[in-house]
Amino acid sequence: MKAHVVVIGGGLAGITAAIALGQAGADVTLLEARPRLGGATCSFHRDGLIVDTGQHIFLGCCSAYRGLLAALGMTEHASLQDRFDVTVLAPGGPAPRRARLRRTALPGPLHMLPALARYPFLSWAERAQVSRPALAMRLLDPADPAADTQRFGDWLAARGQSERARRALWDLFSVSALNIAGDDASLALAATVVKTGLLGKNNAADIGVPSLPLGELHGDAAATLLAKLGAQVSLGAKVTSIDSAIGWGDGFLVRLAQGGEIAADAVVLAVPHEKAAPLIPPDTLPDATVRGWAGLGASPIVNVHVIYDRPVTDLPFAAAIDSPVQWVFDRTRISGISASKHGGHRQYLAISLSAADEYADVPAARLREQFVPALAELFPAARDAQVTEFFVTRERRATFRQTPGSGALRPKAATQRPGLVLAGAWTDTGWPDTMESAVRSGLAAAVELRKTVLTSTMGVRQ
Ligand SMILES: Cc1cc2nc3c(=O)[nH]c(=O)nc-3n(C[C@H](O)[C@H](O)[C@H](O)COP(=O)(O)OP(=O)(O)OC[C@H]3O[C@@H](n4cnc5c(N)ncnc54)[C@H](O)[C@@H]3O)c2cc1C
Fold this sequence. Notes:
The chain is α/β, with parallel strands linked by helices. 29% of the residues lie in helices and 21% in strands. The strands form five sheets. It has a seven-stranded mixed β-sheet with strand order 7-6-15-16-17-14-18. A hairpin with a 2-residue loop joins β3 and β4. The protein is globular. The site of flavin-adenine dinucleotide has 37 residues, from α1, β2, β18 and α13.
């Protein structure tokens, strides 16, 4: 008889676990509280547009996430740049100041040096200092618990990085990757990003931008694949408790808000930490461990969506400094705007604001007063253009707060209860709370079950 595994949570972590377990021959049921798969990576329709609640990107080094895209048949819809290439804009009077950070074909970490040597937003002295932390970072072990006790900003400052260098260079990568103000990030997580992305192979930081809405790229594609694998997907299925079936080792009863219960040989709990804590059955993990998850907290991401009556830039995306704009993406094509009633030559820009505590509760009208002029400073053509639509999406719990000490609070996939494993981008994958972490956690959960309860005696192919 096949083992029956219930996966709770249909974000990227749960999707990945469900696919891996289905491919391994388990009988899988995926329960998702919302009416769609994809979790934090989702899209909605608004007045003829397809909108992602939050712009997502990934890097060449995100091998597990790219593996998921391949399994979903979506690689061609989320292609990587030929080379890491970011335009950085800064307001500067009639014409904005502009820099291009483009890697060379040199092997990493030399590949970024020519671009950094020319980076005009730092003084010569500041540019000369950039290699100091880069070299020191190579010797730093992100898994060393001591690295999780330090603030990235303090560590950079101690290695000659001025306030200006931290804001105009390091923040470009750390704020968006870690969703926390650059100085406040955990050194351990920052080190993972910098070592893997910027100091690793020369193509590790090449940026991937989806060319399909996230709902299609992940949720719809996952539903198709899971159906092919024979998995049962239940949407609108909110789990309220996980209980022991009879006694220790006899499996689980998963109870649903709408009533009913599902018996399972094993459970993957792939929900955010604040949802996982009340669902964890007693004696699965020490109480203090589960209580500690509250310390991971939450950090918001806000997206500001602006539609112009005409094109204002031909850049697919850009970063900004000395501006409230952090990163801005051209979403005209992906949103379907040209096929919509909005028609023709309009342009849809989305500003992605990470570590957005100061914006999370600001009314849209006030954000409009701040961000429309800010875009006009970066894109001169926007000064004559009309804004035809403006709206804001807010994800208040976009990621956990990736500050010092957070690493110690992240649990592994395995619990003390054989057959109940954890997944989620917030668990201890060594990666920041990202799509890559979510997919890695789902794979780790599946591996853990395969090497413990899902043995060949339960009918799972090894
Ligand atoms: C606005 C925004 C922008 C981001 N940008 C990027 C980016 O550019 N690059 C990047 O790599 N990452 C980015 N991230 C982070 C990335 O989206 C997440 O790390 C990842 O998607 C988390 O996946 P997950 O499966 O762990 O959790 P989630 O996606 O949160 O999925 C958990 C699922 O569990 C379900 N659930 C909860 N409780 C229950 C219950 N009781 N019963 C059943 N189901 C339940 C939820 O409905 C949800 O679908 C961004 C996140 C946001 C919000």
